[in-house]
Amino acid sequence: MTRPDPGRRPCVLVVEDDAGLRDMLHQELDDAGYATLTAADGDTGHALVVEQKPDLVLSDLRLPGADGQALLAHCRTLPDPPAFIMITAFGTVEQAVEALKQGADDFLTKPLRLEHLRLAVARALEARQLRSELSQYRRLLAEGEFHGMLGRSAPMRELYELVRRIAPLPSPVIITGESGTGKELVARALHAESPRRDRAFVPLNCAAIPAELMESELFGHARGAFTGATQQRDGLFAEADGGTLLLDEIGEMPPEIQAKLLRVLEDGSIRPLGTDSERRVDVRLLAATHRDLEAEVAAGRFRADLFYRLETFQVRVPPLRERGDDLDLLAAHFVARFAAARGQPPPALAEDTLACLRAYGFPGNVRELVNALERATAFCGGREIRPAHLPERIRRHRRMTAGSDAPGAGGEDGAERLVVRGDDPEDWPSLEAWEQRYIRWVLERLDGNKRRAAEVLGIGRRTLYRRLDNM
């Protein structure tokens, strides 16, 4: 996700016909670190909104030309509308409340209290940033969703197309992929795209069922068929009749059950334990595994005839490390989902945090990413997810694989040092160039916190703002 430029000051447009108040607001906002534009009437304010695209409009309600409500109505029509604070006299509070209903973020009454002004501006800008990020999350999700799977990378687009092509067919499908890649989601997509979509989808994790119970689980049993069988049970094949049965981790299935499964695939009938009669079933079988079944066949752990019966169609689910920018999309989705569960707006993902996630290989794939971001969302306090909120193994991997990005950094220990190459003084950077580079680096490392950056640099905030304006 695109993050704001840490060196850019938020822009506030002040629309006020009282020259004294307008100048006071300009000075106050400039001292607080904002880039400030001014207009004396609504028509000029309208033009500046179009030309300059401010982050926030601070407008009087009553203005020459178009009034504050007309300006607000125009701002609400923009693709990325600015935050909006209305200024009103005590006698027009009801109109100000009406402005809130029309989309204003806040209103201030005259005479203005400067402390209240600063707080209102900061809150309105923060609310706009959250709205912008939420809108971007929703847009990303709308562009990359397929039956619960998220991704726009080439491997995922190829996966979606393969699912669409083979889903209408009755043949079995083997779904392969590493643990945590989302093989069950692929199986559900195959079912949803098939003519069986209105019938049952029944999943079974073969690794979670004891071998002695698997036959009964799949094919059912009669009452008294074994100790503890106090009543008849139909089994999962009967439950999935007319629909789809997913056998997840089929590589863990005992050999004796593999033989019985092969028979079902060949003649479409099952025989419950403890009975002499067979029952016909119409089931589309999907099998998922993280194992290499051909290697399992070669090792004698999986029946060759069952493998050849299943392998008509194979679908490979790509690991997360092969999916490129899908990681950013998934991260945005899961952060938004966990924040929504807490009734909170989604916290921002700092660029350093995304860099940590991108550098990590995620051997546990999407499942591992989900767990990491659930933890980070809980620990970040609802503001911004920083690298410190991620699991230690992810942070440790970044430290091991990335060198220092400080300007002029060098040496294995990442210690900062100036590197000047060449003997010609004409090729050496100027002091001003080094200062600009260092200021940008400090701002990036402090996530754009200009107050803290000024403290680190040992200069006043206004001096920092002037240098940023000249960079």
Question: Could you characterize the architecture of this molecule?
Answer:
- The strands form five sheets. Strands 2-1-3-4-5 form a five-stranded parallel beta sheet, sandwiched between helices. It has a five-stranded parallel beta sheet with strand order 9-10-13-8-14. A two-stranded antiparallel sheet has the order 6-7.
- 46% of the residues lie in helices and 13% in strands.
- Residues 1-7, 402-406 and 409-418 have low confidence and may be disordered.
- The chain folds into four domains: 11-142, Response regulator (Rossmann fold, 3-Layer(aba) Sandwich); 149-318, P-loop containing nucleotide triphosphate hydrolases (Rossmann fold), CATH 3.40.50; 320-402, Helicase, Ruva Protein, domain 3, CATH 1.10.8.60; 422-471, Homeodomain-like (Arc Repressor Mutant, subunit A), CATH 1.10.10.
- Helix 5 (114-143) crosses helix 13 (326-341), helix 13 (326-341) packs across helix 15 (365-379) and helix 14 packs across helix 16.
- The relative contact order is 0.09.
- It is α/β, with parallel strands linked by helices.
